[in-house]
Amino acid sequence: MPRCHAPWTLGRGMLGVVAAVVFAALPVVAAGRSVSFRSDDGRTINALVFEPSQRPSAAVVLVPMLGRPKDDWDAVAQRLADANILALAIDLPGLSDPGDSSVLGAWSRDVHAAVAYLQSRPDVRPGAIGVAGASLGASLAAMAVAGDPVVRSLALISPSLEYRGVRIDAAMKQYGGRPALLMASAHDPYAARSARELAKDPPGPRQTHFSEITAHGTVLLARDGEAVRTLVEWFQRTLG
């Protein structure tokens, strides 16, 4: 059974190295629709949007792990859409580490652009936008939303305080009193430890969820249906 911790508690986990993992994918009822929009540097960002039947609705940006495509979010995105939350899964600028922490951190601009895209859609309720990221995607999500008051809620799956020179502790402090969900496998030491540290003495509501399944990032969500339920219910509750 997964262990859920109430706000202001945390556990340990490591941003583990995920290699050659076979996804035990959750069933996907419908495919998303392809969309594209521009980042602030003019680059085209490709994404999949999963639209709920009732609109206007809340909306969530989904940010993948390094080396993984936006499609990893398909099952979760469909679950969000079924819960009447529009889901937008984006691709990262590259599939490999550029080898420069400043360049890697600048990928967070794509997350910011995705939030702006959601703001521009008339079927998205104002003030009801969230962001979820996995592994490196969690770092980019935290950096993107830190100074953006438009984002109301955040979820970090297998977060890392520091990943290849990119740190998020300062970003999470800047995020301030807005709510954040911190999720990791109890057997993923650095991710769990990072989640615990990020929930320590927070300026706002923090909820943690620790799974007993050994996996990292979107792989954890693919293997742990209870974690997906927790994630969907988090956004239902915090986005209204």
Could you characterize the architecture of this molecule?
This protein has 240 residues and is an alpha/beta fold. It has one domain: Alpha/Beta hydrolase fold, catalytic domain (Rossmann fold). It is globular, with a radius of gyration of 16 Å. 50% of the residues are buried. The N terminus is likely disordered.
Task: Sum up the structure in keywords.
nine-stranded mixed sheet, Rossmann fold, two-stranded antiparallel sheet, 11 strands, 240 residues, alpha/beta, disordered N terminus, single chain
- The run of helices and strands is EEEEHEHHEHEEEHEHEHH
Largest sheet: 9 strands, mixed
CATH level-two architecture: 3-Layer(aba) Sandwich
Strand arrangement in the largest pleated sheet = 1-11-10-7-6-4-5-3-2
User: What percent of residues are in strands?
Assistant: 25-35%
The percentage helix is 25-40%
The number of E-state strands comes to 11
Per DSSP, the total helix count is 8
Provide the CATH superfamily: Alpha/Beta hydrolase fold, catalytic domain
Which regions contain 5 or more consecutive residues with pLDDT less than 50? 1-29
Structural shape:
globular
Structural domains: how many: 1
